[in-house]
Specification:
The protein has 451 residues and is an alpha/beta fold. It has helices spanning 19-30, 42-50, 84-91, 99-110, 125-138, 171-175, 195-198, 201-213, 225-236, 264-279, 284-293, 321-328, 367-374, 386-398, 422-434, and strands spanning 11-15, 34-38, 68-71, 95-97, 116-120, 142-147, 163-168, 184-187, 217-221, 241-244, 302-307, 310-314, 334-339, 357-363, 380-384, 406-409, 440-441. Pathway: Cell wall biogenesis; peptidoglycan biosynthesis.
Length: 451
Amino acid sequence: MNRVTTAKNKRIALFGLGGSGLATARALAAGGARITCWDDNPESVAKATAEGIVTGNLHEFDWSSADSLVLAPGVPLTHPKPHWVVDLARNAGVEVIGDVELFCRERRALAPTAPFIAITGTNGKSTTTALIAHILRTAGRDVQLGGNIGTPVLELEPPAANRYHVVECSSYQIDLSPSLDPSIGVLLNLSPDHLDRHGSMENYAAIKARLLQGADYAICGIDDEHSRRIAIGLEDGGSRIETISVSGAGKTLDLSAASSLRGDHNLQNALAAKAACKALGLGEDEILTGLNSFPGLAHRMQIVARCGRTVFVNDSKATNADAAAKSLSSFSSIHWIAGGLPKEGGIEALRPLFGRVEKAYLIGEAAPAFAATLGDTVPYEISGTLEAAVGHAAEGAAASDAGEPVVLLAPAAASFDQFRNFEKRGEAFVNAVMALKGIEASPTAQPGDDA
């Protein structure tokens, strides 16, 4: 765990006591800060108090004595309107920052040249973050992986000269990090997302751009207009920048042996990871070894098992048609498990990919609507439950004439009708697959595996 020594003896107000908020409170207290923590949820306050963290209602806090407000990334900073605690801090002239900013300050104090790779983008940032960390670890480096991907950045080991911090950054975290200064900054892509929290696409893009603007070396995807504009601006400003694209030169990266990196979206992820690791001094062979051995992330086009010729793929994270399109376009001879809580538009946008599907197995509330869209184009059954769908899809794939039939969970729907979240749905898929006879599990996929 990091101790935030740069905040020693400073008066810090902290708001938001979820996972990252608690980790930040612990790190601040361990570093000698004088903290007062609060949350709108009384249960979160009670949990922190029971742990020995100093809590107090920030409505009654003496803001004139404060040095900083540390805000959890899930708390509104600007839109749709600032949270009340943000207004109190700003009215008193108190800076509002987050956990990544605290990490940056510690790095500058402890080991300013320590490798720090920060990754953002609308899509693919978790895979790219994990891929960079995997390549570095495979090459024998001391790697700390965290941030928005799971482990809070202040729960990682502290910066050190030969320790590589690979950190996924959400737009919320960037917005709370005014001095974000990674060794290498990666921006993969931009598309409309979180606009309720940023007000407009222009604001959202400007926040994402900050990660590259503060980096010693920038890597930027240019396959969308917003990212391309950011790259042009950085080039015009004299920044050290490398651009990546899945067209043209990008096609020369051979991922045929990297089974977990199928599809153009993963080509972009791999190009970014290769560029970052090359800039860090790794050789081509080290990078290729890491790419080819990358196991993938749970619930994201995760190859979980084989049974004879059949491959079983868990893409439970594909909670809408856009996301499901990526996995459907990456395979053929698909026995497609789809459905759940329907989203606007259903699966109509996937019609151009229906030719890749041998049969669909429909589950959850969306099953009737999905069946109506499939119509006479794709054979289907309404399986009802995920467990039934897995069993029937496995039987259908085993009877297929295809060389490598695929049983693919790509729901194109939310999970909440039958599961608490997409992770639990993915775990249920893995458990059902592992219960089949003749299964050969992927070394990275075990029953109950959780991202």
